[in-house]
Write a structure and sequence with these properties.
With 210 residues, the chain is mainly beta. Helices cover 9% and strands 55% of the residues. It has one domain. Strands 2-3-7-8-9-10 form a six-stranded antiparallel β-sheet, with no helix packed on it. β7 and β8 form a beta hairpin. The longest helix is centred in the N-terminal third of the chain and has 15 residues. It is elongated.
Length: 210
């Protein structure tokens, strides 16, 4: 029995101290297409207008984007290694408006991508979250057909003089108590233009890009 016990002990020691994963793994920043939604400078503003000529203006405030990085893949576990190749890349942009709704005056964009970097990087989740005054929503950017509850995808929508394709429509159910006092209850979004319009209950109008 002693040789068997000795063999088992040697095997466990070998497994515990021999991680087969590479020492570090690389995670990218957001892609060029994703960064386009955050591509603003201090001189930029986002403007919306309604059918009676009222404007809502959101001057650019700040932006931040995570940088590419490398990380330790493996940690020693009870038996062998515990290896995690999960990457996370983020970006955000903030605009402060010239009007308020329910005490809020901001418009913000946030993008978060998660993926796996094992050999070749592969994104598994890409979510765009946003705030328009008192409205908060999120959109799945990897699979347009994967909608969150209450959302829809319109093949074409006209707002003002513009017609947009593949429009995400994110809406609150204002019959629910939690949403009854929300001033913004529906938002329109495209992957190329970001927020293109929203319904405002304070003026009972749709605001859209000029």
């Amino acid at each position: 029995m002693k040789p068997i016990v000795y063999f088992i002990v040697c095997f466990l020691i070998t497994v515990i101290h021999s991680c087969k994963c590479k020492d570090r793994y690389d995670c990218p920043s957001l892609s060029t297409g994703e960064l386009a939604l955050l591509n603003y400078t201090s001189a930029d503003t986002i403007k919306f207008i309604n059918a009676v000529g009222q404007f809502l203006i959101f001057p650019f405030e700040n932006t931040s984007v995570s940088q590419p990085y490398s990380a330790q893949a493996c940690k020693q576990a009870d038996i062998g290694c515990s290896c995690d190749y999960t990457c996370e890349s983020t970006g955000s942009a903030l605009f402060i408006g010239d009007s308020t709704r329910n005490g809020t005056r901001s418009l913000s964009y946030d993008i978060k991508e998660t993926g796996r970097s094992f050999g070749e990087y592969s994104a598994s989740s890409l979510v765009f979250t946003f705030d328009v005054f008192d409205f908060s929503g999120k959109i799945n950017l990897i699979d347009s057909l994967l909608l969150f509850p209450g959302d829809s995808l319109a093949s074409s929508i006209s707002l003002g003089n513009h017609t947009y394709s593949n429009v995400h429509v994110v809406a609150y159910d204002t019959s629910q108590v939690y949403f009854q006092n929300k001033k913004i209850w529906k938002v329109y979004f495209t992957k190329t233009d970001g927020i293109i319009g929203f319904w405002d209950r304070q003026t009972q109008t749709v605001f859209y890009r000029p």
